[in-house]
Amino acid sequence: MKHSTLSLFLFLVVFATSITIAFAQDNSAVKGTIVSSEKEPLEYVSIAILQQKDSLYVASAITDVKGNFSIYNLPQDSLIVQINYIGHQVYFKNIVYKNQPIDLQTITLKEDTSMLDGVIITVTAPIQIKNDTITYNAKSFRTNPGDNIQELLKKLPGIELDADGKVLSQGEPVTRIFVDGKEFFGGDPSIVLKNVSADAISKVEVIDKKSDEAELTGIDDGNKEVVINFTLKKTKKNRGFGKMSGGVGLDSRYFSNLNYNQFSPKTQFSVIGKFNNINITGSNIQNFLENADGIDDDSGEDENSAKRTKSLNGFLTTAVTGIHVGHEFKKKESFNADYFFNYSDNDGLSNARRISFSNTNNFDYNSINRNSKTIDKHNLNFNYINKSNKSSSLTIKGTVTIDKTATNINRDESYRTDLGELATTNDQNFNNTFNRSFGNLKINYFKKLKKEGRSFKTGLNTRFISLEKDNEQNTINTRNIGNDNESTRDIFALRNEQFNTSIVDFNFKFTEPIAKYHYFNLESFINKRQVREDISQTREIETTAITQDTLAFKYITKELSSDTRFGYSFNTKKVVLFTALAMQHINWSYGVIDEDLIRRSQLYFNPIGFALYKPKRGIKYRFNYKKSVKIPKPEQSSTVVNDLNPNFIRQGNPSLEPEKLHKLSLVANINNYTSGINFFSKIQYLYATNAIIQRISIDEDFIRTRNYENQGNRKRFQTSLSFSKKVKGLGVRYTLKNKNRYNTSTSIINLQLNDVISKDFQFSGVLENSRKNKIDIKIGADFSINNTSFSIEQDLNRAYTKQQYFGAIDYNFNKRLNVNMQFDYIVFSDDVFVSNQKLPLWNAAISYSFSEGNNSILKLVLIDLLDKDVDIYRNSTTNFFEETTSESLGRYVVLSYTYKLNGRKKEPKKG
Q1: Under DSSP, is residue 634 helix (H, G, I), strand (E, B) or coil?
Q2: Domain of 85?
Q3: Contact assessment for residue 658 and residue 690, using Cβ atoms and an 8 Å cutoff
Q4: How many domains does the chain contain in total?
Q5: Vertex 667 angle, CA 666 and 671, to 5°
Q6: Phi, psi at residue 342, to the nearest 5°?
């Protein structure tokens, strides 16, 4: 299976390369050269081809350094050539393309003298590039009635939404999203994308934003983030807009959504709400299969295991409401606040199979888990931003979160020897409540001083966390089954845990110019952290007699660290260099209150390096190196044993020393706007010395005890690559991606050192049409390979492969009728678990708009048509690998109706 997977992927690479070479000759549909009135060639001029009948986007190009452009793959139709360049008059030319090349020869753009009079010219080009901003004209890209802006982004060249719903621009993640230049629900991309209608947007701006400090001082520090700003249509401002929808379906499935927005030049007001039992957390009916607060296995058994993605197993009921208010006092001075409430009720059934091993007794583990979880969460965000002063800026941001989680898990466990004999069973029931209060306040102040290049900034970040856990566990443990000494224990335990954490971070930075482009930097960071634990536990054990034990203690962990950095930076338009030596002093103490605390104090010198090279527009190379010190977590160094779960005992090691971490990364980002090539590559390397590893012991009753110690080194090497290109003449774009991960971890199991090496390889290829006005088609494949090897039991080394083939089609019969369909075929194969599984998933939707303005929309959604109600998860850790199969919602059908609020166009006043 592994060889066939690699062969198929290599075939895709060769096929895509062959297509590129085959169409490399000059078979352009429209070409030309653009010059200024002085006959100088103009670079980065935006050329767009539009349909004459509706001005929708067909294709686009950007001129090269010689002013040349070529556009390929045009439909035989009446078209418009539109040429747009800042400071020049827009050029239009009607053409009729009949599958014969059209040479526009040399086009001279005239300067726009109206710009000198301060007249604002409305940007009408479908795509425009200016400095660090790419602007898309939203009306040039067709979306379906009822679509949110998430669907609009999928139509834009260079924008991608990955499988986790994250937005990528030219391969880089988008960190924040604004509406009309202002934060919307804390700038959370998921909320913005699912709650603003696509037809409300005029422009989409993708901005390579500098840091606040760089914007104020004009000195590029290399700290940039990719943000997206959605500009509303004028018809949507100063009047309310939004939509409400509801749907019912088979098996008592239902959903309802509401969002309403009122935006004026100074004030913004938004309300959103939803209630459903169809396993979605967004407000968009198209997001049925996205990750949500699914039920985890709740084991927490191995810190070195891969982080599990929450999945939609079981049945989820969700209720959400939120309100956002923003006000601009004056230009660049604003206040925003939002409140969000989330309720979810999730229950389900899962089956886990685990193969565990040690140097003394290997065994198989099976469990049937019945889970239920309810969450009540309140979240308040606010921020005050004042950048109105040209020489200073002030930002204040705050968050308050209060949530309560109640979990019930019933777990039937069985342990079998490596000969397949049943040895031990557990019938466990967990009833846990978790209450959390969290507060965070950030204050940052930047000041540019009189001397050019001289500046300072200071910031304060405080966090307060209060946790209360009430744990009730009952375990009926039967050991030595089938033997003469078979025994049963009934263990009932109550444990109350209270954690209070306070964190205060203070930072200061002073920049002094040495010479042109050269700067001296002095930075200071002070971190104070304190964690207080109050633990009370009562346990009752019934065998032939009843015994009872109690445990009560108060524990404290304190940390005070200072980090002073002396740095040098070199900043030009193309090159940014920074190097520093950090002097880190750490004091920490921990132990049971009213007893002598264990105290530590150490001094470290840590080098830091950063380089950014931008040889030309669209090309960036970034290098980072940082050495840091990581002290043990409180649970790793704790002097108290946690034996609440009688089958998994946790204890710390108070003698642990800090880890030393070396992090190195190299990023290359190349976007050739002329050829349409997007390339992104990232290499990361982590090397930890004096690594904190797990020490695991497993006794003859399969009881695991975990401890920690410093032992050797730990390594992690990761690479990722993405390459995307249009195929000239075919009207398609292909994207190839590759991710690799090499990870070494170590544990001591029953006094024997176990080295684990995990190798992960992921390959994917996607082919999609580049012109999406009428039809949007996407096909592709994704292959994941995991190889895990263990030094203790080499015959249990494991290879696991996941293959996923997918296809999606979105077709507009006309402006009112739309059909979309998605099919996924997933194959799980494993040389350990014999039961290889195949999972086909088929979803479809049909929507029809009743009104000419697309204000009333009826939609039929069909989910999991093949009724494959299963979710599969596999994982490798330091001494076991596991497969979990969970039930999911299965097949259902929902009929929905959506009505847009104030969606009709405003009638012009009669003069």
Answers
A1: helix
A2: 1-112
A3: yes
A4: 1
A5: 155
A6: -135, 130
The answer to whether the beta carbons of residues 606 and 585 sit under 8 Å apart is no
Structure token pair of residue 233: 């249509």
Instruction: Note whether residue 226 is domain-resident.
Output: no
Indicate which CATH number applies to the domain containing 22: 2.60.40.10
Question: DSSP secondary structure string, 99-147?
Answer: SS-EEEEEEEPPB-GGGGGTPPPPP--SEEEETTEEEEEGGGS---TT-
Identify the bridge partners of residue 553 per DSSP, sorted by sequence position: 535
Enter the pTM of the model: 0.82
Residues in CB range of 614: below 8 A, 6 or more apart: 573, 574, 575, 620, 621
pLDDT of residue 100: 86
Q: Is residue 868 part of a domain?
A: no
Structure tokens at 85: 């360049």
Please, are residues 541 and 547 in contact by the beta-carbon 8 Å criterion?
yes
DSSP-derived pairing of the beta strands 172-179 and 224-232: parallel
Average pLDDT over residues 797-811: 88
Mention every residue, 6+ apart, whose C-beta is less than 8 A from residue 408: 371, 372, 373, 429, 430, 431, 432
Q: How far apart are CA 210 and CA 561, in angstroms?
A: 29
pLDDT one-digit tens code per residue, 490-518? 999 999 999 999 999 999 999 999 998 99
Q: What is the pLDDT of residue 836?
A: 66
- Tokens representing 396 are 């204040």
Tell me the three state secondary structure of residue 675. coil
Q: What is the pLDDT of residues 261-270, one digit of tens each?
A: 888 888 889 8
Q: How far, CA to CA in Å, does 783 sit from each of 566, 799, 825, 828?
A: 46, 13, 12, 10
Asked whether residue 299 carries a pLDDT value surpassing 60, the answer given is no
Q: Region 871-890: what's the mean pLDDT?
A: 77
Residues 720, 682 contacting (CB under 8 angstroms): yes
Name the pLDDT band for 164 (thresholds 50, 70, 90): low
Joined tokens for residue 419? 């000969």
In the predicted model, what is the mean pLDDT of residues 206-214?
81
User: Average pLDDT, whole number, for the chain?
Assistant: 83
Percent of the chain exceeding pLDDT 70 equals: 88
Where does 331-485 show beta strands of DSSP type E? 333-356, 363-386, 392-417, 422-448, 455-479
- Using an 8 Å Cβ cutoff, are 568 and 579 in contact? yes
What is the radius of gyration, based on Cα positions, of the chain? 30
Whether 40 and 63 have beta carbons less than 8 Å apart is answered as no
Q: Which of 84, 7, 3, 22 has the alpha carbon at shortest distance from 50? A: 84
Tell me the mean pLDDT in the region 167-188: 78
Hunting for tokens 């058994």 — which residue is that?
A: 301
For residue 14, the surrounding DSSP H or E stretch is helix 2-22
Convert the pLDDT of each residue in 346-397 to its tens digit.
Answer: 888 888 888 877 766 678 889 999 989 999 999 999 999 999 988 899 999 9
The mean per-residue pLDDT over the stretch 852-875 comes to 80
- Alpha carbon distance 759, 788 (integer Å): 6
Whether 85 maps to a domain, the answer reads yes
pLDDT at 116: 42
Q: CB 443: neighbour CB atoms within 10 A?
A: 15
What is the distance between the alpha carbons of residues 881 and 875, in angstroms, rounded to a whole number? 6
Asked if 806 contacts 781 with a C-beta cutoff of 8 angstroms, the reply is yes
- β-pair partners for 847: 818, 859
One-letter identity of residue 624: N
- Please, which residues bridge with residue 875 across strands? 882
- 66 lies in some domain: yes
**Residue 713 scores a pLDDT above 50:** yes
What are φ and ψ of residue 217, in 5° steps? -90, -20
Question: What DSSP state is assigned to residue 759?
Answer: E
| 571-586 per-position pLDDT tens digit | 988 899 999 999 999 9
Confidence of residue 121 (pLDDT cuts 50, 70, 90): very low
Cα(628)–Cα(752) distance, integer angstroms: 30
Contact 585, 542 (CB under 8 A): no
Euclidean distance between CA atoms 11 and 781, whole angstroms? 12
